[in-house]
Amino acid sequence: MEQVTIERLGHQGDGIAPGPVFVPGALPGEVVEGEIADGVMVSPRILTPSEMRVRAPCRHAKSCGGCQLQHARDDFVEDWKTGVVRQALAAHALETEIRPCLTSKPQSRRRAAFSARRTKKGALAGFHMKGSDVIVSVPDCLLVDPRLAAALPLVEALAVLGASRKGELSVLATVSLTGLDIAVSGGKPLDATLQSELADLARAHDVARIAWGDGVALTRRPAIQRMGSAEVVPPPGAFLQATPGGEAALLDGVREIVGDAAHVVDLFAGCGTFALPLAESARVHAVEGDKAMTAALDKGWRMAQGLRHVTAEARDLFRNPLLPDELARFDAAVIDPPRAGAEAQVAELARARVPRIAYVSCNPVTFARDAAALDYAGYTLDWLRVVDQFRWSTHIELVACLTLTDR
Ligand SMILES: C[S@@+](CC[C@H](N)C(=O)[O-])C[C@H]1O[C@@H](n2cnc3c(N)ncnc32)[C@H](O)[C@@H]1O
Q1: Catalytic residue check, 58
Q2: Crossing angle of helices 343-352/364-376, nearest 10°?
Q3: Beta-sheet pairing, 398-404 with 356-361
Q4: How many Cβ atoms are within 10 Å of 262's Cβ, its own excluded?
Q5: pLDDT digit string, tens, across residues 283-299
C-alpha cells in the first residue's frame, strides 16, 4: 500500500500525484492510499476528502463509464475547465477575459449513444462500464433527457431483432420535436423481415424515424429539429449541439459577436444551428463538408418564413478553405470546426481580414493554436466563455470573440 497526495486533475479527469501516479476518481489536495501498478492506483481509498468532493448524484455513477466527474462540485469543474482553456492559451502567450462558465442542467443531453447486446434472456442496453466493454443498464441516468433513458426497452428490443448473436449494437437516440430519432449501426443486414419488425417496433414505441446502417429503414414522421424559426430534418446521426441550453448559450455568444453584420459566413455550419437563427437579421453563406447536412439546412431555410437569404455550400474546408477573394464580402465569420480545429481556414480568414470572428470550439488546444494565428495576424481575442454542455465529463466547449484591431 502506498499513500500519495493529488496535485492536479488530468485531462481525462484522473487525479494526478507526483510520479506521475494516476488516481481515478481522486481530486486535487486529497491524500489517497492503494496499490500502484504501472503508474496507476487502481482502487484508491480516499484518506482526506477534498472540500470539492460531493456524493455522486446518479445511482449509476460507480459502474457507468458515461460520466467522469460526478464526484466533484459544479464550481470546481467549471474552474477546472476554465483553467484548462487558460493554460492552452498561455502556451501561446495569449490571455483574455474569461466570462463565467454556463453549465447545462442535468437530464438535458438531447442525444445518447447506447450500446446493446443480446443475452440469454433477451437483451441488455445501456452505456459501457468504466474502461470495459461490459454494458450497464442506466434507467435512472441523470445526464440524458428522460425520454432517452425511457428508451432503453426500445434499444433492447432493437438488439433482440437486429443484433448478431455475439456482436454489439450501437444505437444513437436523439430527441426530436416529433419523437425519437434512432440511428442503429453494427446490426444484421436489413432484409424485408427485419424491416417489417422494425416498423411494428417503431409504431409500438411511437418513434419518428429509424435509420439502419447507412440507410433510413423507416420514417413515420420527419424527425424535426428547430433552428431559430426554421425547422430542419437532419440526416440520421448528423452533428447537433449536445444540449438545448448549451446551444442557446453558444448562439447568444455568436449573436453578440456577429452584432449588426449584414453578411455573415458560417464555416463548418452543420445543419444550420447558427446560420438559420442568424438569418433573422443577416444574409448568411453556410459552408459544411457533408452534402446531406447542407441539403437539410437549405430545405429548412426554404420552408421557413421571414428569413434573409441563406446559401449553403458543401465543401471540404480542410483541403479547400474559402479564399480571401471569396471572404471579402463578409462582415463577420462564425467558425465551429471539429476537434482538429481549422488551421487552413483560419489562415485564409486572417489573410482576408474579416472584421469579426465568432469561434466555437470543442478543443481548447486547437482553438488556442488557431487563436494565436489570428492574434499574429492582428486580431484581438476580446473574450471567451466556456459553455459546459458536457456536464460531468472532461469535454470542453467554448465560444470566443476575435476582432480585427489595428495595432
Ligand atoms: C462541431 S460541428 C459544428 C456544426 C454546426 N456549427 C452546429 O453547431 O451544429 C463541426 C461540423 O464540421 C463538419 N466538418 C468536419 N470536417 C469538415 C471539413 N473538412 N470541411 C467542412 N466541414 C467539416 C462536420 O460535418 C460538422 O457538421
Answers
A1: no
A2: 30
A3: antiparallel
A4: 12
A5: 999 999 999 999 999 99
Residues 6+ apart with CB under 8 A from 11: 84, 394
Summarize pLDDT for 195-252 with one digit per residue, the tens.
999 999 999 999 999 999 999 999 999 999 999 999 999 999 999 999 999 999 999 9
Report the chain's terminal Cα–Cα distance, integer Å. 58
Residue 302's contacts (CB-CB under 8 Å, 6 or more residues apart) are: none
Q: How many CA atoms lie within 13 A of 209 on its CB side?
A: 22
Q: Is the CB of 270 under 6 A from ligand 1?
A: yes
Q: Find out whether 127 and 138 touch, Cβ atoms under 8 Å.
A: yes
Closest residue by CA, ligand 1 atom 27: 270
Of the residues 101, 141, 362, 401, only one is catalytic, namely: 362
Q: Is the CB of 269 under 6 A from ligand 1?
A: yes
Cα 319 to middle of ligand 1, angstroms: 14
CA of 331 to the centre of ligand 1 (A): 21
Global pTM reads 0.96
Place of cell 488546444: 365
Question: Which grid cell is 381?
Answer: 481575442
**Amino acid at the residue 250:** L
